Structure formats: C-alpha cells, structure tokens
Automatic annotation (TrEMBL):
Annotated transmembrane regions: none
Pfam families, A to Z: GLF, NAD_binding_8
Coiled coil (UniProt feature): none
Organism: Aquimarina atlantica
Top-level taxonomy: Bacteria, Pseudomonadati, Bacteroidota, Flavobacteriia, Flavobacteriales
InterPro entries (alphabetical): UDP-GALP_mutase (IPR004379), UDP-GalPyranose_mutase_C (IPR015899)
Flavoprotein found in the keyword field: yes
Domain of life per record: Bacteria
Molecular functions per Gene Ontology: flavin adenine dinucleotide binding; UDP-galactopyranose mutase activity
Similarity annotation: Belongs to the UDP-galactopyranose/dTDP-fucopyranose mutase family.
The protein's name: UDP-galactopyranose mutase
Necessary cofactors: FAD
Annotated GO CC locations: cytosol
C-alpha cells in the first residue's frame, strides 16, 4: 500500500492546481519542488513590503469566466491594467501600437492619417512572401514601427539578426486605431492582492509539500511513495536526454533596490533600441499601487541557455520539434506518469492556459472509472 495516490513533481501552477483538485476528490497528494519555494515561475519574493516577481513580470489576464472565477476563489485581484511604455532612441511611446503611439511617432491625430502612413510604408517596404522576420514585420506594419520598436528588441530577445529569424515568430502585429493603451484585449485582468503566493498557498492548503527536493536525486525512493506521478519538469530530463537536449532561451534578472519612492512611474518600460542590452525594466510596486518609501526594479536581460540556467522560452524550430516528438511518443506509452505544464509539454503557456490545461487533465482522469 503506497502512502500517496499522486507524487507531483513541480509546485508551479500546473502541479498546484492538479494537487488541489485531486485533494478535493479525496486523493492523497505529495508535491515536491527542487527550488526552495513553492509556486514555480509565478513565485513572488517579498522585499521592503513589495512583491518582487522573481521569474519575470506576471500579469493575469483571461477571457474565460470559468478560469477567472477559479483564481478568484483564492485571491482578490486588483484593477491593474498592463500599459507598458517603450523607450526608443531617447523617446517614450505608449504600447501596444495604438493612436497614442502613432501621435508620438508621426504627430498624426486621426485614424485616417495614421492608417495612411502605415499602408504607404507597407506598400513601399513590404514583400509578398516574407522569408524572414524582418520582411514579415515590414510587410505587416512598415518601416517606422519596425525600426523603432521591433528590430532591435527582437534581436535582443532571440540573440539573432532579424534577417536570420524565421518569419513565423511574428504571426500578427496588431495595430489599434483607438487611443487605448491596455496591452491585453481580455475581459478580465489584474494582479492578485498579496501576490501570486496567495493563490499558490490557497491551492496547496492541506496538501503535503516538500521544497528543495529534486526528483532525479532520489527517484526510486520518491517513486515508491505514490501510485502515480505527475511530472511538470523538463521532458528530456525525464528520459535522461536520450533523444537529445531540447533548447531554450534564458533570461537574467538584475534586481536593484532604490532609496526613492518612484523610479520610472510605470510597472513596465520596454527598452526597444540597441543601446541597452536589457529588454525591459520592471518596477514591481506599480503592479500593486505600492506606496513604500523604497522601490525595487528588475532589469531583464535575454541570454543564451545552457543546462546551468533557468529554461524560459522553448525554441520552436524543426530540430527541437523533432526531438520533442520522440519524447512525447515515449511519454504516451508510459503508464502511471502524467506529463503536464510548460516544461513537460515544451511549449509557452500563459497562466490562464496552464490552469485550464491542468483542470482538463484532472477531468480526463476523473472520468476514467476504476476497474
Ligand atoms: P513552472 O515552471 O512554474 O513549474 C514547474 C516546477 O517544476 C518548477 O518550480 C521547477 O522547479 C519544478 N521542477 C522541475 N524539475 C524538477 C525536478 N526534477 N524535481 C523537482 N521539481 C522540479 N503568464 C501570464 O499569464 N502572464 C504573464 O504576464 C506572464 N509572464 C511571464 C514572464 C516570463 C518571463 C515567463 C517565462 C513566463 C510568463 N508567463 C506569464 C507564463 C507563466 O510563467 C506560466 O504559464 C506558468 O508559470 C507555468 O506553470 P508550470 O506549472 O507549467 O511551470
């Protein structure tokens, strides 16, 4: 008789939602994480009374009422609306691309004036079948927007020239002909009051957890504790990298404490030109309208990834997709192990999507009646 129904490897949103739901269904779960805290990438570290988004800025947004109601069981959300600014060539602009941006860029005041410029630039610089990211962007928004906001930023993000990046990285570049700086189009948006840890603590209330435990350091012992495993770590690591390494893009975060109340007047400022190596500065207190005397900012530097670094963004190219397919096939043949979450599925997910996918997984399993 095993002590647990489920051993859940990874205390991120996928694992925490899974543990919560299964506990509610009378199952016994043990959640482990190799980090020294719960929450995975949504974890916030409290410093000077400010919730610091340790693994990058996290803004919750969704169109799905069911997911919004779900997270609101655990936390109250504030009315934060993401309206990032962009600094490029010494000037500040509003994002996403909208009538404010166009006014700042060209002095245009009406949608007709702005649309005329964009259409003319697309006609002048765009091509019929774009072969790389640069051609794709020029064909979608023209030269000025591309050169001011997209070129250097994308090159910093991916560490490659825009002409060497595939066109499919940018599928659409929405432009808005209204004066609306709300980055997301979703109906629901906000930051949980008290930070994301409030949600994680709510999800894991009454669930056994252990931090600082790496599944691979004690695999046999850990596997012996439970009937089934839910694995949310890297899929290639689970299979001992036997089909090769899946590649990622990494980030380096430099946190700074400043002895002033307000550093940049906004939570997110993007640095879109090439004169800065970082892509953005986050000022965490503005996510929660903080009034502290001090402030904490984070500079976000894109980095090449190696196994000593955190894996942030999967690199979606044919090499990695081929390798991933092999691991996926093996994972489907394996009984007693459920794979889920961004690292096991080798895919970028937003928070609302990862919660939805964990809930779907729980439903799938709960439908299968025991023999
Ligand atoms: P997550 O990585 O959180 O959890 C996996 C856990 O498994 C980790 O804690 C890890 O330590 C653990 N683990 C791995 N291997 C292990 C092992 N061998 N043993 C034990 N533990 C192990 N989304 C959004 O909606 N709005 C936003 O603004 C943002 N912003 C954002 C910024 C940045 C920079 C990134 C990279 C991502 C976002 N996201 C986001 C996405 C969001 O972070 C993501 O959807 C969830 O955190 C994914 O949760 P998971 O549980 O899948 O992974």
């Amino acid at each position: 008789e095993k002590r647990y129904d489920y051993l859940i490897v990874g205390a991120g949103l996928f694992g925490s939602v899974f543990a919560h739901e299964m506990t509610n269904r009378g199952k016994k779960c043990l959640v482990i994480d190799k980090r020294d805290h719960l929450g995975g990438n949504v974890y916030c570290e409290e410093k000077e009374g400010i919730n610091v988004h340790k693994y990058g800025a996290h803004i919750f947004h969704t169109n799905d009422k069911k997911i919004w109601d779900y997270v609101n069981q655990f936390a109250t959300f504030n009315n934060y609306i993401n309206s990032p600014l962009s600094l490029s060539k010494g000037k500040l602009y509003n994002l996403p691309f909208n009538m404010n941006t166009f006014y700042q860029l060209w002095g245009t005041k009406t949608p007709q004036e702005a649309k005329k410029i964009i259409d003319e630039q697309i006609a002048q610089y765009g091509v019929k079948s774009p072969q790389n990211l640069e051609e794709q962007a020029l064909s979608l928004v023209g030269k000025d927007i591309y050169e001011t906001f997209i070129k250097a930023y994308t090159e910093k993000q991916w560490g490659k020239k825009a002409t060497e990046l595939p066109a499919f990285i940018i599928k659409r570049l929405p432009v808005r002909y209204t004066y609306n700086n709300n980055y997301f189009n979703d109906i629901y948006q906000g930051i949980p009051i008290g930070g994301y840890n409030v949600i994680i603590n709510g999800l894991l209330d009454g669930v056994d957890t252990k931090t600082g435990v790496d599944f691979f350091e004690d695999r046999i012992e850990l596997e012996s504790l439970a009937d089934k495993i839910v694995y949310t770590g890297k899929i290639d690591e689970f299979f001992g990298y036997k089909h090769g390494y899946l590649e990622y893009r990494s980030l380096r975060f430099e946190h700074e404490l400043h002895d002033i109340e307000n550093y940049q007047g906004n939570a997110v400022v993007n640095y879109n030109d090439a004169s800065y190596a970082f892509t953005r500065i986050i000022e965490h207190k503005h996510f929660e309208f903080g009034k502290q005397d001090k402030t904490i900012i984070t500079k976000e530097y894109p980095e090449n990834w190696d196994r000593s670094k955190e894996a942030y963004y999967p690199i979606n190219n044919s090499r990695n997709q081929e390798i991933f397919k092999k691991y996926k096939k093996e994972s489907q043949q394996l009984e007693g192990v459920i794979f889920g979450g961004r690292l096991a599925e080798y895919r970028y997910y937003d928070m609302h999507q990862i919660i939805a996918s964990s809930l779907v997984k729980v439903e799938e399993i709960s439908k299968i009646k025991p023999q």
